Amino acid sequence: MKAILTHPGSAHKDDFLACCLLVAKHGLPVWRREPEESDLRDPQILVVDVGGEHDPEHGNFDHHQFPAEHEPVCSLSLVLRHLGLYEDAKAFCEWLEPAEWFDSRGPFATADWLGVDRSVVNRLSSPIDITLLRRFAQRRELEPGDPLWEIMRMVGEDFLMYLRTLRERLDYVAAHARVLEVGDGDRALRVLYMPRVEPMPDDPSSGLARYIGLLGERIDGLIYPDRRGPGFGLSRHEDSERLDFTRIAGEADVHFAHARGFVAKTSSTELDRLVELVARASV
Predict the structure, then answer these.
(1) pTM value > 0.70
(2) Looking at the domain 177-280, which fold is it?
(3) Which residue ranges make up each domain of the chain?
(4) How many whole angstroms from its chain centre is CA 41?
(5) Are the beta carbons of 185 and 155 closer than 8 angstroms?
(6) What is the pLDDT along the chain (283 residues), one digit of tens a residue?
(7) What residues have CB less than 8 Å from 64, skipping those under 6 apart?
(8) d(CA 93, CA 166)
């Protein structure tokens, strides 16, 4: 592989992030210029967001030639599909679909699609976005060792790691977690219980909310291993009003209960006791 080539001039989030992924994947320099026909025919040059072709076999990832009625798509989408990560990114990165709309439909259509006032789109911009895109737009070439290239590599690596490890974590949760019914009848709480399994992951609660989203079921609370000690954490799911953990603040085995009632920590490890504490926190 020789290089990643993208268009000169103004830069957008989609082409910047597409280049970040390819930098992380291949460690290539980035050229910012209009492609020549020889670039488009050379599979060792990855042409991103320019060139009028979507041809992964030749390393070309442009979307501007698609018809107006084509589904919202951007160069980042095309690179993610090429890497086999698009479905997970669409499921786990809520910002991806708005980015596709923004790049292919523009800010006003995106605001209308989101159902928000058009002024909201500008309010979401950050100095991080502005600086990185502006500095990227100013460069003609970026080589390994250049501070901006190294930042792009880190962004791409973290993006790739997030997608790959999250899928692994969801599989881990699916293999070990189970839903408990706490209480009886219509007032019963539904709680996702994650047991303590060895070896423990660095963050035992990571992936639980995503897993619940995939379940498509109502879940009121969570019971999960405390990463800071041998006990367990108890928390609301999506701020359920059916649980208030200040109700168990006085229990001998509860060493922390947040004043707003959304989380507590207990030294207990027996499932029966954990279920009892959740029941006592029921509103």
Answers:
(1) yes
(2) Diaminopimelate Epimerase; Chain A, domain 1 (3.10.310)
(3) 3-166, 177-280
(4) 34
(5) no
(6) 999 999 999 999 999 999 999 999 999 999 999 999 999 999 999 999 999 999 999 999 999 999 989 999 999 999 999 999 999 999 889 999 999 999 999 999 999 999 999 999 888 889 999 999 999 999 999 999 999 999 999 999 999 999 988 888 888 899 999 999 999 888 899 999 999 987 766 676 778 988 998 888 999 999 999 988 899 999 999 999 999 999 999 999 999 999 999 999 999 999 999 999 999 999 9
(7) 49, 50, 52
(8) 11
